[in-house]
Design brief:
CATH topology: SH3 type barrels
Largest sheet: 6 strands, antiparallel
Helix content: 10-25%
Radius of gyration: 13 Å
Distance between the termini: 35 Å
Length: 104
């Protein structure tokens, strides 16, 4: 079972289409066989958290903290690599910043 900070390949259905695609994603957490993930895109022009080839990505990419999905563990194709402690901290801080908007 992938753990928080694992970068995985997963089958994901996007909200704007019924199509399911295999995409890279970061595992945020797992509960009851559901995995909460943040999408990753190779479009480096998009806003998000940079992820480089040096860090393990296939190509320079961006973690999209605004692309959050819930998938079943059966949708995980494979684990690719793990985020560094520093990259996990940056992702955590970005998610907390966005979720803090719920307090207002």
């Amino acid at each position: 079972m992938p753990k928080a900070g694992s970068v995985i390949l997963a089958r994901v259905q996007f909200a704007d289409t019924f199509e399911i695609k295999t995409r890279p994603a970061v595992v945020l957490f797992e509960e009851h066989n559901n995995i909460i993930i943040a999408g990753i895109t190779s479009n480096t022009q998009m806003q998000g958290i940079p992820l480089t080839k040096k860090e393990g990505a296939i190509s320079d990419s961006v973690i999209k903290p605004n692309y959050i999905f819930t998938i079943s563990k059966a949708m995980v194709f494979k684990e690719l690599f793990f985020l560094s402690r520093e990259k996990k901290r940056i992702l955590h801080d970005e998610l907390v910043k966005r979720l803090s908007l719920l307090q207002n």
